[in-house]
Amino acid sequence: MTLKEKAVNAIKKYSMLHQGDSVLIGLSGGPDSICLSAILDELKDNFNLSLQALYVNHGLRPEENKKEEAFCREFCGALGIKFYIEYADVREYTEAKRLNLQEAARELRYGLFEKVSLRENAGKIAMAHNADDQAETVIMRLIRGSGRKGLSGMPPVRGKIIRPFIDIQRAEIEGYLKARGISFVTDSSNLKTDYLRNRLRMDILPLLKAENPSFTESICRAAEILRDEDQYLQTAATKAMMRLITRKSDKSIELFLIPLMNINKAILRRVLRRALSEIGAGTGIGLVHIDGIIDLVHNCKSGDSINLPKGIRAIKNYSTLVLTKDIQTGIKTKHIEIPGKTICGETGLMLTARLSDSPEKNDGKTAALFDYERLALPLQVRSRRDGDYFYPAGFGKRKKLQDFLVDLKVPREMRDSVPVVVSGEDIIWVAGYRMDGRFAAGEGTRKFLILRAEQCVSR
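Above: the chain's sequence. Below: its structure in token form.
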């Protein structure tokens, strides 16, 4: 099978291209990207393609970069491919983001591909990664301790990005170029052994291939199997998570605890990763963090929590696991305007107060009705304090606020954000939960105070 036929097979197998696609090629001037450009040029009539190419100058090899730019411009001109150049200050980005040069260059490069593809209305970005690149990637990730997802290698298709050469080996690419007399440039940084990938390419892989000539195919086949299995497990985890969610916002997600504890660990890890990604914490979370959450779920008591990267906290409650970056804090003491509205900004709650000459319906939780003449003004709202107690309506005797919240299974992390309304030194209402029976309106009440707690429209 020819190289062109293998490329067409990959394009069809992974549904990389469709009729009329506009394709932006990542062009470096090296053998892989030159070969990819030539093959896509041969296929452009088959798929009615519009071809463009982008060279990214990283500013790391000034003299070589000038030659590469000129070479790529001439090459694209000969094929009638639109050509663009973008510049990236990799060294500055490396310092700002604390990355190594290769990581920084990669991030900037992909960002520029996305930028130009949007600007030029290119629906696909073609990269020239080949089977040897795939094998190197898998081995690098194995060395670094990656799991199944990492060992599945580079996906043939990821969003706009397509890799038509993912099943083609480097030797085949070089043979194609030699047979057709197509020239290319050599990036001198690829010959340095400073980087792990280069050491793998030049020193380790040749030894492995000497032992097993089919080594590259074997690694790529294993990566494909792992990729298929990873997709299956990811789908299973997504379905499981949908059944577990009890509450969700852009800042937190709450999962039912009991079914969570009974999920197989392989799926549980994925459920937790997916749940974290739902609140914008998909990156920076490692296996150690995921296993820390699992330990919290299985071995810790209600109210315990652990801190995760990016300001995320995992909290084990009585019946749920909460993953949140919206950590509630205490309430600043404020006077309650009567009549008026008092916003507890830390909790997103608003207390409204008004007077009436007649009683109104109330549940004692979100709305409470008081005998105004029994109250010492001004009323205040604050967080709980050590030693707080009150006389819960219907209970008949004094109870510590701490014990009251524990009995109601209010999560430890949330207790400081419960609004406590006080009259002088007396608690008259634990907003959202219970009022104090001593101050409740009764038959002899002549003037009524109605307090209501409701969520603010915006925080």
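The chain has three domains: 3-226, 249-324, 334-455.
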